[in-house]
Structure formats: C-alpha cells, structure tokens
Design brief:
Radius of gyration: 21 Å
Number of helices: 10
CATH class of the largest domain: Mainly Beta
CATH architecture of the largest domain: Sandwich
Helix content: 25-40%
Largest sheet: 6 strands, antiparallel
Number of domains: 2
Order of helices and strands: EEEEEEEEEHEHHHHHHHHH
Number of strands: 10
C-alpha cells in the first residue's frame, strides 16, 4: 500500500492512498474533521452507511466504531485533509462558552458537503504542506479554532458532541455486541466502549453469550455473510470486508468449514 501522510502538526495532516482499496476498522480517540480532495470513501456503522466523494466535508465523532473503505477514483488517489479536534483543545475552546449540556448516544456522522466556509478554511491549509521547517503552533491553533467556530455556526447541535468530554458509561453488552460485531477492534476498546475493564468485559461476555468473544464474533460474521450471499446475491469479494474479515482466503476457509461449501458455491 502506497500511503503518504504529511503532518503540519499532530492535529493536521494531508493523507493520500494510491492503492486500489484500503480498509480499516477504526474508533477515533479524537473528533475527525475531513475534507475530500479526491477519491471516494465508504463508511459503515452499525445503523448507517455513508458515501463521500471529492468536495465532501464530514465530521466523525470520537468513540464511534466504523469500517472505513477508501478508494482512488478517476486515476486520482484517495486524498484528504484531516483535522483532529482533540479533547484538550476543545476544553480550552469551551472554557469561555456557556453550553447547555445534552446527552446523546446517537451514532451520527455530520456531513457538510461543499460548505463554502469550511471548504475555505480547509483549503487554506494546502499551501502550508509545502513549507519547510516546523509549522507554527500559533497558526495551527488559529485554523483549528476557526474550524470549530464554523462548525458551531452551521450546525447548532454540534456542541452536544464537541463539548461532551465524558467517557462511555456502562451499557447493555448484548445489545452493543449484536449491533457492532462486524467491527475488528481490540477487546480492550470494546470493553472501554461498553464501560468495562478488559477483565470485566470478558467475564460479562462469557456470562451473556456462553462463548469466548472471538468464537462468538466469528460465528456472527459468518451468519451475516451467508445471509448477504444467499439472500442478497452479493459476491464474496463485496461481503467479506463488510462482515468483519480482513482476508478473503481466511473468510473462504472459515465459511467452508462452517457451511460445507465455499462462498462462491452457494446456489443462486
């Protein structure tokens, strides 16, 4: 994979993927504001699938599970400007602002496609990536503050996300896993998102599902794959990534072991 990242600071980068496809399962520690220069992205969450292309701008809140598939398009690489909105900087921003605290558990990606204010803010960063030497923190701070101010101006609900600094609380494990089993995450992160330590997560998981997490996850992913192949007539190459497998050959092996036939041999 030919991946290049140029960092102005640890919070602002220019990212480029030249390969055919790059897929990752992610949970960001920071809110991520992303502007597409070229290419396409498919983002799969438990309750929604999003498609973004050149010119689109979107905000992915922190602590959300997602499968992200990046594609080059029309001979152009998958290229984005990415701004991390870190908790420390947001806390300093909101110190002087009175915000009514609201609790939201909604998993939502904010879309600001081709918005002129945000596009102007993010476009202005491009020339800086060609500068030599260290990028001044004072300018980075101004650009990030500008982006946060614009976000608050164009979407009044964004404070409920950006001004919320709480860690996830303890939630229902069965419901969470049934909705999120297709995401490849370390068990520590799954525990964190459900408000549990790793040891408590493993203990509660065995009690709830009568199986180890890895065994249960594999079974659920194969069941979903079977449904997508047999009922939706999808191709194995279109299914294995979305259900949580990283490798097509591993998926085919596991599928045949469970169902007795290769995924390509299911009757239409």
């Amino acid at each position: 994979m030919d991946h290049i990242s140029k960092y102005l600071t640890k919070e602002i980068k220019l990212s480029s993927y030249d390969d055919k496809l790059f897929k990752s399962d992610l949970m960001f520690d920071d809110h991520m504001l992303i502007w597409f220069i070229s290419g396409e992205t498919k983002i799969i969450q438990a309750d929604a699938t999003y498609y973004f292309k050149a010119g689109d701008i979107f905000l992915i809140p922190r602590n959300q599970l997602a499968t992200i598939v990046n594609y080059p398009k029309n001979g152009q690489p998958h290229k984005t400007v990415v701004m991390h909105l870190a908790a420390e900087r947001l806390k300093r921003f909101y110190e002087k602002i009175e915000v009514k605290k609201t609790i939201t558990s909604e998993q939502k990606i904010f879309s600001f496609s081709n918005h002129p204010l945000l596009e102007s803010c993010l476009t202005s960063l491009i020339p800086y990536f060609n500068l030599r030497g260290e990028f001044p923190e004072s300018i980075a701070s101004l650009k990030i503050t500008e982006a946060i101010t614009i976000l608050r101006e164009i979407d009044k609900t964004v404070d409920s996300v950006l001004a919320n600094f709480d860690d996830p609380g303890k939630i229902d494990l069965i419901d969470f896993m049934q909705r999120n089993f297709m995401f490849n995450m370390p068990m520590e992160k799954l525990g964190y998102l459900t408000g549990r330590s790793l040891s408590t997560f493993n203990r509660d998981f065995r009690k709830s599902f009568n199986a180890t997490p890895q065994k249960w996850l594999t079974e659920k992913r194969l069941e979903l794959a079977y449904y997508q192949l047999a009922e939706k007539n999808k191709r194995p190459t279109d299914v294995y990534l979305e259900v949580g497998f990283e490798d097509l050959s591993h998926f085919s092996f596991a599928f045949k072991k469970k169902y007795g036939v290769a995924p390509t041999q299911l009757p239409a």
